[in-house]
Please model this.
Amino acid sequence: MIRRLLGLTAALAATVVLGAGTAGAAERQRAEAPRQEKRVFNAMQIAFDPARPDAFCTIGAVGNDDYGRKIAISAGHCVSGPAYADREIREDIIPVYHRQDIGYGPIGYVRWFKDPEGSSTGHLTKDYMVIELVAGVTLSSQGPHLKQTGVMEVPGGIPSPNALTPTLNNERLIGAAWFNNNELVVSGQLGVWYGRITNNDRGVYQAHPQHKAGDSGGPTIWHVPGSAYPSEANGGQAQGPWAGITKAIILGFPMYAYTSSANIVADLRARDAADPADVFGAGFEVTANP
Model:
């Protein structure tokens, strides 16, 4: 079953290529911007250059890591810069802005991302980005349409290819076989969609819910069996555990791909095990704040 609800205004998007001027612009904006409290939530559109608000991506989930930092997750292919990729970025050189409120200044800074490495759809299993949010923001589990109730757990599921042994339940993948009826619910520019997961390729789900450029990194949740589907009657609202982020439009049917939350949290734990207490986002948990 495929459903669309509450159509929204479309916008364009492009990958931001990082350059030498990024740090200076970020520092100037940081000094000029007021730092009043600001709510950050799933499906918030984010830009990386104040002069290019139409080059944007979307937040998939917000929460905290094991080290008490406020964290947002988006897609790695949203930025491109081999000099910064695949390392913890401790300098405030890649600012992140709320696209609809650039004047606030940075809501956070990119701390790690996986470079696309030549792929137009991002790295297969590690296409994600970690953003450390600034102190002045308030985390919220409630996006415009989706409320996230923790991180998806699949006891007994197939481990993510990024997982260590033993594998945690939140590092296991949602089933996509014929006898499974697992569904994703997705929020983006095209509205709220839901539909069945039809394929799982190393933790990248193919599913019917639709998206478009700019929705990269945006939120998906697992539809909890028996829970309400989004509808016009309930304002397009749904709730369930965070299941992943919007990845790409691919060749195939359905053509919509999503990076699983399992791939993300498993890779974070594996990187943290290799470099303890030094990995932004390690132990990520979706906020319980309303």
In short: The first helix runs from residue 22 to 32. The radius of gyration is 17 Å. The CA atoms of residues 246 and 258 lie 5 Å apart.
